# Entry
Amino acid sequence: MWATAVGVARVRALETERENPLFRDPLARAFATAGGLWPSSPPPDDGAARRRRLAVSFSIVIRTKFLDDLLRQASASGIRQVVLLGAGMDSRAFRMEWPEGTRLFEVDTAAPLDFKASVLRRERAVARCERITVAVDLREDWPGALTAAGHDPAAPTVWIAEGLLIYLPEDAVEQLLTRIGAQSAPGSRMGLTLGSRGVIDRFGADAVPGSAASMWVSEMPDDPVGWLAGHGWEADSHTLRECAAAYGRPIDTPPRREERPGGLISAVRR
# Structure
């Protein structure tokens, strides 16, 4: 599944090269090149498939900006621990400004972390905070591995699970949230992306085997705010449409139905 993270890097590279990008990710092109997805992968022949790919790419751009802003707000509030779950080719340790004393933990399996390390060495990339990689499968005792790497559960943490939960079955999502909660001091923050209701039917039903959409298995609950309240988080839910408009990238097509709760989530531990 980690190869999909290289595809995300390609989207971020293309956004970086726009005239007025919502963010800049100077390492994204290096990840995409090393992963064989540069300058581009062949566009699908089918028009519907092209539209779906553009929609996914657009959502990646908007969610990246959303979580960047969340991280800046968490840092401004005094939080100095950051945990990226399923970090993939995330380069926030290198491309964002971090207050002194920030420790950023990247949790992922060994294969993507090793691939990433090879690209970072080649690019001579220098992190702007203390960056700590934690090679562990999220199905295993990742909280133990995280603590062993230096994470302090008694201090507030900002957690990011970007493009992750949609790949996990519901029981694994519940376990992940329970574990995050157990490691979160009051005042901790969390940013999540959740698969919108119906997204698996729209994108995954005829997805190419092995593609990202073919591996999607879970969508957000009908009431994500209430769901997270049950896990001890005070959450806000934002739609892609709302955030895109706020960022100056409005979606010009009308919603196909009444807008449901959105899959971009910011939350605070009480």
Remarks:
- The longest helix spans residues 47-76.
- The chain has a mean pLDDT of 90.
- The first strand starts at residue 81 and ends at 85.
